[in-house]
Each structure stands twice: as C-alpha cells, then as structure tokens.
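Hey, can you fold this?
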Amino acid sequence: MTPETFIRTETDRMFRDISLLAGGVNRFHHIRRPTPLDEQVVIRMNRDTLYSGAVIDVTAGATITVPAIPDGRYASVLIIDNDHYTPVVFHDAGVHEIPADTDHMFAAVRIQLYDPGDADEVALINALQDQFVIAAGSDGPLPEFDWDTASLDALRAQYEAEAANLPNLKGMMGPRGKVNEDIRHIAAASAWGLFPEWEAMYLNYFGGHGTDRCFAATFEVPENRAFWSITMYGATGFIECERSLLNSSNVVLNADGTFTGSFGSEALCGDVPNRLDTPEGWNFMMRIYLPGPSVLDGSYVLPRA
C-alpha cells in the first residue's frame, strides 16, 4: 500500500463506516450531543461543534440545503471527495449543488456549540441539524470495502507518528491541484475530514510529557473571525477525559488578554482556571476557525508547556 492508495483506502473506510451509522447513502448520521467518549467515529473530534455527516451519491446530481443559522454562530458544510480532496465549503443559507468529483461525496456539517453543558443550546443545535437536507437523483450503494486492513492500520500508525513532528497541517487539504501531494496522506491518517487552512488552522502540540506533574503555558489569543478551541487527546488521538476542552467561550483571560492553560489533574494543578486533564500520551490540537493573517502566515505559534 502506498501513500496514494492509503488515502483512497482510508476514505473508503470512513465512507463505509459513516454510511452504516446513517443507515445508507444520502442520509445524515447526526451526533446529537457533545462528542461522547464512546461515539468517536474519527480521531481528533472536538466537543465545541456538533457534527453531522453523510455519504452522498452524486452520479445523477445532488444538492444540500443549508438553513439560516441564528445569533452569528459558526456553521459550515465541508464537501470531501473519495480521494480526500475538499472542493468547497458552504456557509450561506440556501440550496447548494454538490460537486461530482467522485461518484460519492461526503458532507461534513459542523455547528458551533457555545456551552456543551447547556441542554437548551444542544436542543437548538439538534433542531438546526434536522434542517440540513440532501436531495440526490440516485442512491447507488458504495462499492464493497476490499482492502488489506492490516496494511491500512500499519500505515496509519506510521503517518500519525509523522504528524507528531509537524507544527500544523497546512497545505494538506483543499481542492485538487491546490494541496501538497507529498504530505496530504498525513492529514488522512491523523485528522480525516479536516478543513483547508483558510477555513480552519490546526496547530498540534505533542510535548512528550507524562502525567506525573502539572504543566502550564501562557498563550496569545489567536487571530480569528469565528472562534478557537483546544482539545486534549490521548496517545491514539481520541478524547479520553471529560475535562478536555478549552475555547473562546469558556476561557478565563489574564489581565493582558493572554490566557494560561494548565495541563494535569486537579490534584497536581490545584483549582485553577483553564485546566485540562491529561491522559497517558497526552497531546492537544488548537483549532482556529476562519483564521486571521498572523495564523495563516505562521507567525502565531504555540508556546511550550
């Protein structure tokens, strides 16, 4: 298996798995509550957006209807083809034609959640999820998944290790002809379904630290036109702790506008704001939605904990 065939294979697997959860093609699988620890369908999900995903047969044309989103919150539909290219992101309310770059395309809906603990807000987002509507002229099934899963798993582990040495995932996602073909397999392995950088930047932190003491770092607030978040993961890239999210809605700022994050248990760190629990092999990802120039040009960097 090569990097090129890995991308198609991993995307085939994701298409298969999510279409099974949805009950077929042209149907959404909605995650109705902040990502449950036991319902993480891909690695490096987050808990400050609610996700919906659908595999769509576009061979006879297909559209997606996007509802009006209230109160200025961020919402988007990322379209992904079967080779993990992302030709378009929809934001505006209305009916949008889905490109037919491959026979089946994937629609990934994200809606911002200000407070994951607010049941009324979660109910509001659930109602919005139901207003995203797919209309397709055909409902042909996906091809049978017939790949060597052992090779797939081995390459994924190798590419995830490569991702740990990169500061971000810039250049790995976007339309055909506008991505770095030498490294985009790393995105398919370490963060399948991520945005191109103009929609969101992803900054990785792999400190190699243990869980035996508290680590702290002071951050500048990243320049953005939507919001930012930090999500804590375990060694395998999944959320393992309930206290795993720090973002622009729940952060406590310092007097100078920066914020100090503390990483470790309450027993080690004390009762401090902006604290995240740290599982074994902990690492985190900062997401910056609609990033500003200082983020896009690389001048914004993460501090070291």
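Oh, and this one too while you're at it.
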Amino acid sequence: MRTFPFLQTVQWLRVLRVLLGLYMAAHGITRAAVGTVDDFGGFLTQTGFPFGLMLAWGITTTEILGGFVLAAGFLVRALCAVFAFQHVMGIVLVHAPRGWFTVGHQVGGAEYSVLLLVCFLLVASTTRPASSLATVGSER
C-alpha cells in the first residue's frame, strides 16, 4: 500500500512525538528566558495553589527537560500523561473561561490546548510501554 504523504502512520506518530516534545521545551524555555516564571507563580498562588512560585519553576523545568526527553523518545507514555494533565489544567484554569477560539472571535480560548491534549493522548496510546527507542511510536 502506498503511503500518503510519503510516510507511514507510525512514522507520522514519531514526527508528532518529536514536535510535541520540542513544543513543550520551547514553551518552558520561552517562559524562563522572557522572565515570566514569577508571574506564572503569582497566578498559581492567586488561583489557590500552595507554593505557586516553586510549582511554576517545577512546571517550567518539566517542560524544558521533559520536552527534550519526549522528543528523544524516552518516557513517552509518562511524559505524555504529565503534559496532557498540564493541558487539562490550563484549559480549566485559563482557556475555557475565555471561550473556544484562540484567535479571531475570541482570544486565548481552549481550541489549541484541546488539540494538543488529544495529540498527547494519541502518542501515549500508540506507544508500546518499553524503554527501548525501537518500540517508541510502535502501534499495538
């Protein structure tokens, strides 16, 4: 069977895994580089989370390190679960109150985060539990 376009499904899943990991790493790196970790910590504290600043740094560090680890193909299911949970919390606390659309009719809505959540769940559900790179992205 010919593949469209150019790659087989399992290969596209690997591409998606790498891009998701790099996306998360970029998200954390940008937050740290721009200097908004303190603001994020303040938001978490104001929302009712204890130790907001420590939590913000933990999340940022997890995004950076975990993103690169995910892109490399290690701890795929665990990291996808962590990042999926993070997106659920982002949807609940930030995006859903702003509506559905990210841009256009509304700003900051949930649509992009919902898409990323589904992508993390897809990658996790199609990856065999193993520590070997040979099975990462392998379908069941």
